[in-house]
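Our collaborator T.R. sent over the components below with a one-line note: 'Predict the complex.' Nothing else. No constraints on interfaces, no templates requested, no preferences about which chain binds where. So this is a plain run: every listed entity goes in together, and whatever single assembly comes back becomes the starting point for the next discussion.
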Amino acid sequence: EDKVVQSPLSLVVHEGDTVTLNCSYEVTNFRSLLWYKQEKKAPTFLFMLTSSGIEKKSGRLSSILDKKELFSILNITATQTGDSAVYLCAVPGGTSYGKLTFGQGTILTVHP
Amino acid sequence: GAVVSQHPSWVICKSGTSVKIECRSLDFQATTMFWYRQFPKKSLMLMATSNEGSKATYEQGVEKDKFLINHASLTLSTLTVTSAHPEDSSFYICSAAPGWAYSNQPQHFGDGTRLSIL
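Returned assembly:
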């Protein structure tokens, strides 16, 4: 059974801080790892990682994958209150790329 | 691109009512769509895989007669919660990706439907 574990489960920081969110996984047939941000509604897509060591970057967010150690990190620099959300890590499994197994999520709270 | 629309966003109804939720891919075709359920402060749990033109595939423990799924076209899947009871109250979310089930494209989610059964 595919498994995704995120840490920490919650994090409280102040604006301007840098945070690192962790995701480890066990999957029988690895294809990719995805990061999503969930605020009040459904998750919005952040990154899809398929290759080890290649950083993906979007503004203040960046992510990298280590397929040897089976984990990924999501970094957010210069955090803002708008970054407060649940960050979800997911891996597709089974015979369909869309069938995602999610981690528990990391609740990030950024105080002004 | 890759916009998924879900409707309605919020439903409140009486126990025993059937509720239909629609999931549409607006700017792409999707042979496969997915339905998830999320309880408060919990992660998303896959309920079923909706396959265009064929029967849905349900996850273990999900009652197929309770949660009816229809995927009649390449842009629309519907989830009907039949004879809903308070324990069915939850946040239901659909997802889809361009292409077919074996294409390595990220899933994009609808905005979700918050279902409250009184």
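Summary for T.R.: Residues 22 and 39 of chain A are 19 Å apart (CA to CA).
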